[in-house]
Each structure stands twice: as C-alpha cells, then as structure tokens.
Amino acid sequence: MFWNEEIETMPRQDLEELQLKKLQSTVKRAFEKIPYYNKRYSEAEVYPEDIETLKDIEKLPFITKDDLRESYPFGLFAVDIKEIKELHSSSGTTGKPVVSGYTEKDLDTWAETIARGLTMMGIGEDDILQNTHGYGMFTGGFGVHYGSHKVGAAIIPISTGQTRRQIEIMKDFGATGLIFTPSYGIHLAEVALEDGIDPKELGIKAIGFGAEGWTEEIRQRVEELFGTKAYNIYGLTELMGPGVGIECEAQKGLHIAEDIYYPEIIDPNTQQVLGENTPGELVLTNLEREGMPVIRFRTKDLTKITYEKCECGRTHARMSRITGRSDDMIKVKGVAIFPSQIEKALLKVGDAEPHYMIIVTRPGTLDEIEVKVEVSQDIFFDGVKEMMAVQNKIGKSIENETGIRVKVTLVEPKTLPRFEGKAKRVIDERNLH
User: Fold this and answer.
1) At a CB cut-off of 8 Å and minimum separation 6, what does 14 contact?
2) In order of start, what are the domains of the chain with their CATH numbers?
3) In this protein, which residues make up the domain named AMP-dependent ligase C-terminal (predicted)?
4) Do the Cβ atoms of 191 and 170 come closer than 8 Å?
C-alpha cells in the first residue's frame, strides 16, 4: 500500500506552514521564469515578497483557460523544453487547446497523488487494475497508469471502447479494480448482463470514476451492478490531470492533496474568497510543479470544501462532488462542449438561423444531445429532401466542431423561445444534481 502518513495526517497548522513555504517558492519561480506572470503581477503591483501569509494569495490575480490558451503552446513553461518529458493537452474544443508540460519530477508528483487515491480505495500490489480511461493527449489514462505503477498494482492499459473485449479481459485476467467514466461503466455492466455475465461475479473490489457529471443515484447504480464501492476522482489537465481530489473509504468528499494543490472557493460573481462549507467556484494553485506552475486557476467547477478531519484519519481538505459549472459548458460523454461551438457550426452552414437550443438527455445510461435549430422559411417550404440535406449538413458541421455526433431537429422560424439578456441555450435533462 502507498500511504504517505506523515503528509496525509499532518496537523492543520504544520500543513499550512508547508503550504506557505511552497507557495512562496512557486510564486517566486513563476515571477522570475515566466514572462506572463511577471507582467501580470507587475501590472497588479504585487511581488513575490508580498506573499507573507497564505491569505496573501488573494492579492494575486486569477488565471483562466483563456490565459492558458493565449500562452499556447509553451508560454507558461518555467523550464527549458529539454527538461520537459511529457506533453498533454485538453481536447481544445473551444479554439486552441490547453497544453500541459511535465518534468520528470512532475510525473512523479502526479503518480504520487493518484497512488494516494488508489490506496484510499484499497488498491495495492496484489491488484490488477483495468484502466478504461483514454490514453493519448487526454490526461486521464496516463495519470491512473503512473499512479498504478507507484502503488505496485498491475495495470491493464486497455483504454476506451471494445466493450465485449473489455469484459472478456476483465474475466480472463482477473481484474480487481476498474477505472471508467460512470456512463461507460453502466454500459459495460449492461453489455455483460446481455451476454449472461453477472458483473458482481467478476470479483471487482474497487472502482474509480470521474471525467463527467453524475449523481448519487448513478453511483448507487454502478455499485449495485458491480457489487462494490465506486470512488470519485477529480482532476483537470490545466493543473496536472486526475488526482487533485479522490475519495476515501468513507465516501464523504474527495481528499485534496493539499501539499500539492492549494484550494480556494470563490464567489464566481464577486470573486471574493468564501469560507468553508460555502458553495462556490473552485480555484486551484500548483504548489509542487516544476514544468508549468499554474497559480490561482479558476476551474469554473462548483463545489464546497470542508477542513474537518475525516473519519479515515486524513487531515487534508475535502471537496464535495462537482454540482455544476459557473459557465455554460456541458460535459457529454466526457467531452466538454460550449454552446458557442454549436453556434459557430451553425453559422458555417448558412441555411440556419442563429437561434438554437441544445437538449441533453440520458434516456438510458449514455448521454444524447439534440440540437433544435430554426431554419429560414424558404427551407420549410422546400420539401423533405432539401430539409434532410440541411439537417445532415448541420449535423456534420457540429460534429467537425465538437467531435461528437448530435441529433439535429429543424424547427420553423420564431418557434424557439427568445430571451432578454443572456440566452439560455442548454436544457440539461440529465438531472445531475
């Protein structure tokens, strides 16, 4: 087992002293090595020596995804490219992707956070972990992979898809741990049942999942299907990848590795820092990253934090599961989609009006997206063949823009609701709260 007891059960006061030391050195390095921070901090008239207490972090400006995109690809690196050993990026669904660079030490830090989490789930060197998270530029697969090595478990890097093969491998190789997105996990179980295999009899003793919105009901369904506990994993490419927060046996919030990530909760509108147990937007700072330190990153994820010691003995902060976003992003099948992309796709087609509605549902276990689009009056009188052609054209355009297939429904002009001010473009009927 991989249990960093000294750090994970450190008294709060000692932990905060450690965080302050790390924060001071991170801010100093960022200021000296990265022109972006030097410029931003100088403009805000805040300098490394102004960080005398943890609360002083509030003097520093926030960094957002847009800032990271503007620094594409390597503008936020604090080291020379020869020290970078691995590169990942987000899906780049809204313009330029966000790039993440890792030194040898960063990869080890990343493995450490996941290893702590796998230990919380009871995964150790006697286990075989089947990892259905995607490998490639997405950080999910590799984060779990490195953590698994550190904890001494055997890993099956099967990645996504090939559902029947997944089940066969699970059975033949005797997998004891599974990593998946909740919707894919339920799909796996249902396919197994169709083939006369009871997932409960596969001998899985722990499941880790994340990368999309889910509800307690979905967790219960996963746990019932596999007859074991399912633990929430949270992370994001910008800060490192999965492993920022992971649940322990108690399943009462995700433990944030606070010696590696410093969490704050802010009011997304006023940007004021909020106290514990108050819902707001999560802001994260790397405390232990050489290649690309990200300081005060606005995640746009809504959650709350508690500093109470957990019944498992760990003293680090715990965050509750993400209940939504402070922007209009939706996550479907693990892919981030913004209404602005749908808009862009529609404007490329020409026959469609820029009036549309995105409806996300989960009739079974997999997400479905329908886009209702108003088309010009002429098209409506053109007959079925022309309508089908426009529908296909819009569908293709949206798929090119977002990477996923959606159902397109054409509606008459002026039939979709109009809004004063900010349009409500998305109706999410998945009930993820």
Assistant:
1) none
2) 5-252 (3.40.50.12780), 335-428 (3.30.300.30)
3) 334-430
4) no
Q: What is the DSSP string of 221-282?
A: HHHHHHTSEEEEEEEETTTTEEEEEEE-TT-SSEEE-TTTEEEEEE-TTT--B--TT--EEE
How many angstroms separate the CA atoms of 23 and 119, rounded?
27
For 108, the 3-state DSSP assignment is: helix
Nearest-10 crossing angle of helices 12-33, 35-43: 100
N residues, the chain: 433
DSSP 40-70: HHHHTT--GGG--SGGGGGGSPPB-HHHHHH
Q: Given pLDDT bands bounded at 50, 70 and 90, which one contains residue 314?
A: very high
Instruction: Provide the mean pLDDT of the chain.
Output: 90
DSSP string for 163-223:
HHHHHHHHHHHT--EEEE-HHHHHHHHHHHHHTT--GGGG---EEEE-SS---HHHHHHHH
| Statement: residue 64 has pLDDT above 80 | yes
Q: Is the dihedral of CA 126, 186, 93, 26 positive or negative?
A: negative
Q: pLDDT confidence of 241, banded at 50, 70, 90?
A: very high
3-state secondary structure of 88: strand
d(CA 281, CA 270): 11
Phi, psi values for residue 256, rounded to 5°: -90, 130
Angle formed by the axes of helices 216-226 and 182-194, nearest 10°: 40
Sign, CA torsion 203/206/208/213? positive
Is beta strand 426-428 parallel, antiparallel or unpaired with respect to 352-361? Answer: parallel
Establish whether the linkage from the previous residue to 263 is cis, with ω within 30° of 0: no
Max CA distance (Å), the chain: 73
Task: Give the whole-angstrom CA distance, residue 187 versus residue 190.
Answer: 5
